[in-house]
Design goal:
The chain has 179 residues and is mainly β. The chain contains 4 helices and 7 strands, in the order H-E-E-E-E-H-H-E-E-E-H. A 7-stranded antiparallel sheet has the order 2-1-5-6-7-4-3. This is Phage tail protein.
Length: 179
Amino acid sequence: MKLSELMAEVELQPDFEGVVTADDYVLAIGLAGSETGPGDYLVAQEGISEHSGAMSAQTAENTYIRGGTQSTKTGTTRTINVTGDRYVGDAFQDALTAHALKFGTGQAVIKPYVYFNIITGKGEQGLVSIVIDEDPSGAAGNNAGFKATLTAKGTPKEYNYTQSLSTMNSKPDAEESQT
């Protein structure tokens, strides 16, 4: 399913306040390479049991006169893990687990993505390097599973989903802070 199809019936609530669940977050990736913008990205949905975002701070230790040792944050690495039951026929899974991505290297495995809250439309966008960790996996008689690790390249940009044509047709490195 494309992101534009998923969001067609969604009414955003930018001022939402309350508890959200993991199901309220959308991960969509431009896996085909022919997308004109985030609206064409494929959504992680069918058979996906988990997509968990993690952020790892990068720090440097500095020692100062009379101040002692202090840690300084120098950056952050975004990692998203995707786990699920292998569902053949789902466009996202078929593209993610394709031979070219599983065994690809370098620029061939770097794809644009958006990761945002479906209630507010707020999140991030950037580029991820895709590593397929398991495909297929599982004990005999169980569903075949897969696992992928997506690591952001550089610092993701702020992303605000809107149904406007300017956002739907923007490139992944274009500014997305309009509402």
